[in-house]
Amino acid sequence: MSAGKKRNVVVIGGGSGLPVILRPLRDCNVEVTAVVTVADDGGSSGVIRNFMNIVPPGDIRNALVSLSLLPDDFLKIFQYRFESSDEFFKNHALGNLIIAAMTEMSGDIFGAVQKLGRFMMISGKVYPVATDPLVLHAAFTDGTQGSGEHEITVAHKVIERLSITTEKGEQPTPTSEVLLAIDHADIIVFGPGSLYTSILPNLVIPSVGKAVKASPAKKVYIANIMTQKGETDHYTDASHIKAIYHNVTDGIIDYVLTNTAIVPEDYIDFQKWDEISTQVKVDLAEDKKLGVTPITGDFLELRDQGAFHDGQKIAEKLLQILDGKV
């Protein structure tokens, strides 16, 4: 590596978890690439997806905002969500509409996102994992099946196997830029985010899973703070890793970062955050059996009566892994 060359950090995920570490990584001396899921079919993203047949823009929007160097006042406008009383625009985020408009203008979601990234002065890159909207499919342990991220989430059932297709039922094709970023990565980070609807939807694309397996990069899974009702009840950090291996392939994780700071139950508003259940526990022995190095510590941020990752602490630990200090 030449002197002064930035290391390449690829972060794979989606949802509200991905931005937690993108912003602090943006301010580090690394080249950040966010690989974002395009399987969301709920909320504003789902409506735009259905009406315009484009990839859902919400997770892409959040990643762009997290990496942008523009003033916060502009970013607040981009993130503004119309009130429910606005019948035509209700619940749409302005940024989602802008991404949809630029996609329609160019006919190319990937090019539209790259152009918008330049407009927003992002430090890094944001790549939708594919240019077609994808459909998530789940086989549940009770023998039933579900399709679509929203349907799978609200089912609150234990998932046996996950797969993903285009809306035509074909095998998805990731962009060449995504595969190149994975190939050139010095470290690949999975999450933080929902295991089955933010992280795995990227990895179960066969060519993405194979590219991650083949990459010489260090691979880090950020375990969730809390389990998700129905989906990951009673999961330890090792249980999450087993699910990734079961759905993708063995041996694609080198490290797991797990928070061990206690989440006070009397702080959490379980009605507001109704998808979470109990704190994810670390299973050191099982982690090591799986060939994964566990890294534990206080990665907890309590806010808004919820439990979240402290992005700054996570970013610092990732840099230590990059530098071989862990």
How does this structure look, described?
- The chain contains 13 helices and 14 strands.
- It has 326 residues and is of the alpha/beta class.
- It has a single domain, classed as CofD-like domains (Rossmann fold).
- The strands form four sheets. Strands 3-2-1-7-8-10-12 form a seven-stranded parallel beta sheet, with helices on both faces. A three-stranded antiparallel beta sheet has the order 5-4-6, covered by helices on one side.
- β1, α1 and β2 form a beta-alpha-beta unit.
- α1 packs across α13 and α8 packs parallel to α10.
- The protein is globular, with a radius of gyration of 19 Å.
- The mean pLDDT is 92.
How many domains in all? 1
How many distinct beta strands?
14
The CATH topology turns out to be Rossmann fold
Low-confidence stretches: none
Strand order of the biggest β-sheet = 3-2-1-7-8-10-12
Please identify the top-level CATH class. Alpha Beta
Number of helices: 13
Q: How would you summarize what this structure contains?
A:
Belongs to the gluconeogenesis factor family. By secondary structure, the protein is α/β, with parallel strands linked by helices. The protein has a single domain, classed as CofD-like domains (Rossmann fold, 3-Layer(aba) Sandwich), CATH 3.40.50.10680.
Give descriptors for this structure:
326 residues, 3-stranded antiparallel β-sheet, Rossmann fold, Putative gluconeogenesis factor, Gluconeogen_factor, globular, cytoplasm, 21% strand
